[in-house]
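User: Quick sanity check before I run a bigger batch. Here is a single chain. Can you write out its predicted 3D structure?
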Amino acid sequence: MQMGIKRGSVLRKFALGAHPIIENYIERLTIPEIIASHIKQDHRLQVPCEKVITVMIHNILTSPKAMYELLDWVLPLSEEAIGLMPGEAEKMTDDRAGKTLDLFYDGKHQEVFFRLALRMIKIFDLTCSQIHQDTTTVTYNGSYRTWSAAEILTQGHNKDHRPDLKQLVLGISVTSDGAVPLDHHVYDGNQADNKVHDSTHRRLRKLLGRSDFIYVADCKLATAENLCKIVSCEGRFISVMPRTWKEDKEFRKQVRLGQITWQPLLSRKNSRHPDSKVDHYSLASGEYLTSAGYALLWIKSTQKAEQDAETRSRQLDMALDELRILQGRLNTYKLKTRAAIREAAFMIVKSKQCQNFLTYQVHCLKECKIRYAKTGRPGSNNPGTKTYTSYFSLSFAVNREEVTAAQLTDGVFPLITNVHNDHTAKQILEIYKFQPFLEKRHSQIKTYQQIAPAFVKKGERAVALLHLHVMALTVATLIERQLRLAMKKNGITSLPIYPGPLPCKYPTMFDIVRLFNGVERYEVTEGESVLSFPADLTKMQLQVLKLLDVPQARYH
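Assistant: Done. Predicted structure follows.
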């Protein structure tokens, strides 16, 4: 607000940005109504909890630092654009947001997401024939000694490469129609991935009202117990068979002996180098089944072959470097025995997964010394005492034969499925290759939405904030899906919304927020008269609003 030149005149500026777009989709999903019907209110907060939660969704998607200086962020914004009534923005303090998270955690938040999923399936006509599931870790800094949430914050296999920090495990299931989150769950930090699929599949069956959808996940799904439970309820699945199964060892042996014939299956542009490289996929001839009767499709990928060779070369170089360092530490401290040296070398080779590619030997040289009881020239009466000191050395080499044999199976991976009767091998591969889009959602929630660090101390609030990040991700994915579908319908291949000259073929929520950054509207008040100046939108902004089916009046 700024005082005008004339006495009594006031100029008010309202920041809009992409908030009217986000609020439009929040209203279409009826998120406030769903939250209000399942979360208990606390009238001492003076603001309904559903409004606080929707404001935090706006915050996460536009300038993610939820629960930190929320009031300073809200005040410059147009209250109407973020779903607030006049005067409610001044009540959006961090303390009220924290207490709202307590209410959300203690309420029926599982039912909120269940109703939300049903709503978006109906309103946006989502195709749910394929569901992709994966887990990721959410890493937390700090000790959290007073953690009291039901979800245990603890150390486990950290996918952020921070084994020193505590974590929670977040599982998300998305549709193949825009990678929209349909189901999610927060697990203990040490939750094993192979134990989450039974409960996830059960929740999805309840949500969709059927079990004939294709459930796609990584190799942790492929356990005898998980697959048996899915098949018992007439479910369908696609996964990768683990390397530990005997079928994998037998097939790779046949490949090395040259007994396998490969047939071209699929060729497509490389996602990282679309202008210069094409990935080719081949299928092993013949029919292959597991001992339980599930179909195996043996695929060979040129892209994965390059990755396997690069990974093996990198691990070999790292192992050789560590073995050279070990050579310089021999015969000191704890490395004075043959057993200790062999164990140290074994741990290096094992940690780099090079047991088959590196050979090593420990050599011993004994040095003899004679000690005499008296000084002077030794005589026949003073033979002396002999002592032997062992000095160890380490030699190692690369097993070139094993490396050459391993190169024959580079890029080979097996898909295990029970949909082979009504889907071709090419269709099954294309279904599985959608899995990286789910990993992109995990990346989006960690980078763009900044799910960590979390500026909270109570465990319940940390878990509730994690749920809100998934809700915000759902809104963002629906906006992206709507924009890309509208572009395809109107024959638009790209939009010039990047800061530079490059065209944007696949706009994201981040691109939309950046495009509308700085959009404002103004009001001039002079006495009792109010003169409004709507936001001045560019042609590109108007086009995006039209594609997103958002009324331009929201910026008036």
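The mean pLDDT is 91.

User: Great, the batch can go ahead then.
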